[in-house]
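Re: that backbone. Tokens:
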């Protein structure tokens, strides 16, 4: 296929997608209007399933299969990063050097670390009750751990971040979501159907499978982000090309 033909195929495809977007836009409710069929149905379904946070009900109940796809995208990104940024034979791992941290920065980061970690866990645990959930809380938890890098140094972060365990936990979070969905098949329901007791409305145990799926997402996102940052930080801080290391050693020897 020539470049000209590819260009025409792309143009025709783009025009088709644009036409579909325009048609869909004309079918949307008017801005500021009172007719919102999808929103009304989503709210009614959330209340019927005892889930106070409608967004969590949509993510982990009404459209739980879509959320599995989103989680799998992150899991695939983590897996690809681990494979692509692994240490190769022509690279050496150097011990990270301690760095001086400004005392005000150190104090603030050490104070903010437990508070941020607690907030992240709270957001995950209350995902079915209030704004937030596993995605948002997982990011906050991962960020909290890296405040130790800012407050102390990279070696302190490594002591609380055994990457291998976080990789296992990342896979466990992904597997837990799938297993909760597969458990519904044992009852004769469809995959990811909410089959557990719905509990009392506006309590931590409400929502059936929603809090379980939300927790699985929280574990997967938090551990996945930690692994991602670990691989990139390893490349920036510890791993060095063997040729560059030899040149640096030779320069230091000549200087001496």
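Recovered sequence:
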């Amino acid at each position: 296929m020539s470049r000209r033909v590819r260009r025409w195929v792309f143009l025709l495809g783009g025009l088709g997608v644009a036409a579909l977007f325009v048609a869909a836009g004309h079918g949307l409710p008017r801005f500021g209007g009172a007719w919102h069929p999808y929103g009304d149905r989503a709210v009614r379904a959330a209340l019927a399933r005892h889930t106070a946070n409608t967004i969590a009900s949509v993510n982990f109940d009404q459209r739980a299969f879509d959320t599995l796809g989103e989680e799998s995208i992150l899991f695939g990104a983590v897996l690809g990063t681990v494979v692509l940024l692994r240490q190769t034979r022509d690279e050496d791992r150097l011990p990270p050097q301690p760095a001086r941290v400004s005392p005000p920065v150190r104090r603030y980061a050490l104070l903010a670390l437990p508070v941020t970690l607690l907030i992240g866990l709270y957001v995950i645990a209350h995902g079915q009750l209030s704004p937030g959930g596993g995605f948002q809380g997982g990011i906050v938890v991962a960020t909290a751990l890296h405040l130790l890098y800012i407050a102390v140094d990279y070696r302190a972060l490594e002591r609380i971040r055994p990457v291998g365990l976080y990789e296992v936990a990342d896979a466990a979070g992904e597997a837990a979501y799938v297993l909760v969905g597969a458990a519904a098949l044992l009852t004769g329901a469809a995959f990811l159907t909410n089959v557990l007791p719905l509990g009392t409305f506006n309590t931590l145990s409400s929502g059936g499978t929603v809090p379980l799926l939300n927790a699985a997402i929280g574990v997967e996102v938090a551990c996945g982000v930690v692994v991602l940052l670990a691989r990139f930080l390893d490349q920036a801080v510890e791993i060095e090309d063997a040729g560059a290391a030899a040149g640096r050693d030779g320069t230091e020897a000549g200087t001496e």
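The mean pLDDT is 89. The beta strands are 91-93, 239-241.
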